[in-house]
Amino acid sequence: MTQSNTSRQGTSRRVTVVRSSFIASGRGGGQGGASRFFGGPKSRTLGLAGLAAERERAKARLKEIEDSLGVESRKDLADLRREDHPDTDDPLLDAFTMQNDDGDGNWEDEPEAGEEAAALAIRDLLGVRFPGASRAYKDGRTWRQRLQNFDDNWKIVLPDICKAYLQWRYGTPAPKDPEILPATEEFQVLDIYSTATTATITRDRSLIEDLVLHGYLGTAPLHPSLAISFKTLELFRLLRTFKASFSTEAFTKLLCYVYYIPYRRFYRKAIADAFDIYLVILRDVKAQVMSALGRDSDEWRAKNACPACANKLLGEEPPTFDRMVVMDGNNSLKRVLASGGRATADLRLFKDDYFLPRDFVDSFANEVKSRQLPRKPVLAENPHDIEEPGQESEDDEVPDGEGEGDPTDGAEALGSCATNWKAAAADEKKRMWSIYDESGIFASACRHGLILWIADMVRSGELAKYGIAMTAKTNRVLKGKNMHGYDIGCEFLFTIYRSSIGDDFRASGSSFCVNSFHGYSHSYKCQVKYHPNRIVGMGLEDLETMERIFSASNQLASVTRYASPYRRRMLIALYFEHWDDEKYANLGQMLYNNYRQALEIIKEKTPVMQEALQALSLTEEDVHRFEAEEAEYFTNLRDEDPEDLRDILYVEALRELREASEELKDTSARYYDRAARAAEAADAAKAGVTFLTPTSGPTSYDSDLSATRKLETRRRYLRDRVDRLSADVTEIEVRLGIDTRWQPTDEKYVNATKYIATRAYQQALGRLQRLVIQRLFELHKMNLAQTGYKARTYIAKNLQRRCKAIRAAVKAYNTTAGALDPPREPLDWNKASHYNFIEEFHLLADTRNDLRDKPWTTPAVREVMRLSQRVARAHEEIKNVHRELRRVHTWVRDEQELFKAVLDDLKDTNHALHGAVLDYWRRRSVLNTRSMAYVRATYELPEFSGDREPGVRDGPSLLPLHLQGRASMAVSSVDAEVRGTVGDDESNDALLGDDDEADDEMTSLIEYVQNVML
Questions:
Q1: Residue 584: band (very low, low, confident or very high) from pLDDT cuts 50, 70, 90
Q2: What sign results for the dihedral spanned by CA atoms 575, 578, 582, 584?
């Protein structure tokens, strides 16, 4: 702003006063920043009157500084000014000293401030005398030191500002010192709701506390020059809660737009620092609330966050599995490592009960050693092998560092499931660049979607140690017989058995299985034992919870990729806290939907199954017997007989020897024929015989000579090859103990020839199986939400190539199938591209006709078996929902009594936490209201056959010990306090009609595959 004063004589004098500004956050310099937040350096032009006023202000400031100096400092200042030393005689002081000459009161001289303090005071004094002087201060500290000092200063004041926040937020009266007269001060503030740039702050405490008591948080702990309103920070928290990808930079640009100022990076830094401290304050308040509720014990959240899993009741029907736990890894939440091997400057550690400590995870490192995919020996070239376009060789695989194994390396032998999983993981490892420090997360959750624990995957892929650590934590904390769902659970189970926790895991009765959707890509031999549809007690649970979680949490990737370790973990924890709240609110809805789905399956599938049984003259006992026979067959199914492989090796060597011998005989005959004709021509030339020109065209002596030499070279090569093959055949005969060489008419030779044809058929079938499974994986990735455009384009191109390769593989399969005795029926492309085709691979692979007389191999019987399993799982889901509905109902009732007792106790004692606990209960009541709406809706279903009354908790009471006497009190007062949370006129139908579109989108793929399988 420019002002000017013009003298009456028409002349004017102007001077521009420039005041420099610093970063508003104060994080770099430690003093708290700028005199102004908006616009950087400020200047104004003064006239004569303005200059006079400026001189008076400078004199007042000079006197203030001089009065604050000690005696020695005043003498030093006088020496600099070349003035006499000031008179320090004080008659009052002399009188006081004379009255104490009796020695009763002895004074101890307090040392003056050091030379550094005096120098700083003199520097400020000179700056006031010469306001136009320019001075630059060079901070010699490193960035890490400045951040550490900044954090240490915040730790000192955090307890006080947390108390002040409770006083401001919930209206708790603050104690005041009657001897201190409050003063007011104008302070630079930022408030998106009022767009004010200054606020009047009443001063009676430290500046940072006074700001908090007025609803503002300073951007520096000691001497802030800018404060941001709590309402603004809360708005940012809510935006980030409901839109995880919303960044600090985006919010800062929004504020700059509202304030009509250009965006600058140090604005973002100031808001980011303040937001960090705001979250720390909220976490401290929540910790106090949880302590008041008696929920501050170790692992309380993991044990009790999901009442459907944890709130066991007296007299309830025991479940098959105490809990169903899912786990998986995800590489979206990576964090880029500092370039050049530099260490991060932000050394803060984010501690939260979501994350497993790194040292705990690393304690299971190297229990499983890395094992590469073995190269299979090729007995003979397969003419029907189709090399897929763009296929990469095994040489391109990048093994994990440190020699640590993946989840499949603990098994004795690699099965087909492990081989396929390794192949898919190898493609990820090729893209796991070394620029990342944390390369993703490995997480676990209950079947209802509430997070249990998270572990950072550090500079590695999905190693075995993460799954072992997660299983060890679950087994130790949750105890009981648990079912763990993992996409490679069939192989990881044996890894667990061979780990350090194997004995404890066996003793608990827990087990592993595969997820429903991932399970369809496993071999049918694996599905018979490990697929959820085949496991008694699983109900309709698909165990694909982690896929839904990661599909949503991928939104965090854009804001965590370049964050510090502290902020990355903070944002992840902030996201999953809100995720758990949403899943808790949706417990009733999930159980309601599962119950209706089970009723629908029973209603629709049972009549169809009964009609099919009647048409096939079967009973349900027959179907169960068929299932047992099928499981036994695939359990005992083994690979090729080693004796057959030896016969194949010998017969193929004989074939090669015979083919090479025949070719040598033919080549030698042609060579000798050409040599004989050349000799006849030479004899005729000597006798003077003239040959006529050939009618077929001109001849060339050079070309004839070249052809003859080629035949000679080929003949020598074949002769050497026959010698080598003869030696190989002889060696095989000696090793196998064969006295007489087999002939093509011998029975063993004929049988081996048939087996070679069968083996070619098996290889073509295996090739087709691998391609279909890869297509299934890619279709799954293609349908995941938040998959980037480049990734979708890459997958789409791969799918196009994969479909062409599948068509070629089908053609090769039909060729080899026709060569069998008897020939197999050809495959159609439409059938091969269907997911049901995966379970038929093992049936098609039966070339010994061991299944020829098995009724359960026919398509009609197999369809009845699938229907029977689906109906059985639906009946199990009915029982599971009955049990979990009652648990949720009981939990909501007990929690209401808990809050009633705690709130009454806090209110009676006028505790500062009363407002915070009441606020927490109001929001918790909204979640409980939504769940109970669906619980009551389930009770009202005509087909409902469970208990509609809450039960009694089997275990310790939710109430703290000192409040258990209040448990029988009425809850009406709490209802009155929270009545405004949900309107009385809001019906259950309105809540039931609030569909979650995001949940529908994430579950559509699973439902589609389940329908296909039926």
A1: very high
A2: positive
Q: How far is the CA of 361 from the CAs of 234, 458, 614, in angstroms? A: 35, 10, 56
Instruction: Please answer whether residues 495 and 408 qualify as being in contact, where contact means their C-beta atoms are separated by less than 8 angstroms.
Output: yes
| pLDDT score at 349 | 86
The domain containing residue 837 runs over which residues? 748-857
Statement to judge: residues 426 and 565 lie in one domain = yes
Is the pLDDT at 825 greater than 60, yes or no? yes
> Please, what sign has the CA dihedral across residues 493, 497, 501, 503?
positive
Domain identity same for 759 and 895: no
Say whether 379 sits in a helix, a strand or coil.
coil
Three-state DSSP class for 198?
strand
pLDDT in the model for residue 403? 60
Give the H or E element holding residue 216: strand 216-218
Residues with Cβ within 8 Å of 763's Cβ and at least 6 positions away in sequence, in order, are 382, 384, 385, 816
Helix or strand or coil: residue 580? helix
pLDDT attached to residue 138: 65
Q: Is the peptide bond before 41 cis (omega within 30 degrees of 0)?
A: no
Nearest to 556 by CA among 576, 529, 536, 580: 576
Domain boundary among 857, 882, 899: 857
SS3 at position 120 = helix
Q: Are 25 and 270 in contact (CB under 8 A)?
A: yes
Give the pair of three-digit tokens for residue 368. Answer: 């499983």
Q: Which residues are paired to 483 by β-bridges?
A: 324, 511
Residue 365, amino acid = A
623 token code pair: 């179907």
Cα separation, 196 vs 210, whole angstroms = 18
861: enclosing H helix or E strand = helix 859-908
DSSP assigned state of 828: P
Amino acid at position 73, single letter:
S
- β-strand 511-513 against 482-485: which pairing, if any? parallel
Ramachandran angles phi, psi of 240, nearest 5°? -70, -30
Among the candidates 585, 618, 647, a domain finishes at 585
Residue 247 sits in the same domain as residue 330? no
506-520 pLDDT, tens per residue?
999 999 999 887 777
Same domain, 449 and 561: yes
CB-CB neighbours of 409 under 10 Å: 24
User: Rounded to the nearest 5 degrees, what angle is found at the Cα of 851, between the Cα atoms of 845 and 854?
Assistant: 145
For residues 116, 118, 122, 128, the Cα torsion angle rounded to the nearest 10 degrees is 100
Mean pLDDT over residues 16-36, rounded? 41
* C-alpha separations of 762 from 39, 754, 756, 827 in Å: 76, 12, 10, 14
Q: How many domains does the chain have?
A: 4
Cross-strand pairs, 511: 483
Cα-based distances in Å from 367 to 398, 448, 457, 459, 472: 20, 31, 16, 18, 13
Q: Who has greater pLDDT, 200 or 775? A: 200
Q: How confident is the model at residue 858 (pLDDT cuts 50, 70, 90)?
A: confident
The DSSP annotation for 255-315 comes to HHHHTT----HHHHHHHHHHHHHHHHHHHHHHHHHHHHTT--STTHHHHHS-HHHH--BTT
The per-residue b/e assignment along 819-850, b for 16 or more CB within 10 angstroms, e otherwise, is eeeeebeebeeeebeebebbbbbbebbebeee
For the chain, the distance separating the N- and C-terminal CA atoms, rounded to the nearest angstrom, is 77
Amino acid at 499: S
Rg (CA), the chain: 41
Phi/psi at 96 (nearest 5 deg)? -65, -40
Same domain, yes or no: 930 and 899: yes
User: DSSP label at 404?
Assistant: B
Question: Identity (one letter) of the amino acid at 441?
Answer: I
Best CA proximity match to 428, nearest among 418, 443, 439: 439
In the numeric block, the tokens 């993703």 are attached to 440
The answer on 869 and 816 residing in a single domain is: no
User: Are 910 and 966 part of one and the same domain?
Assistant: yes
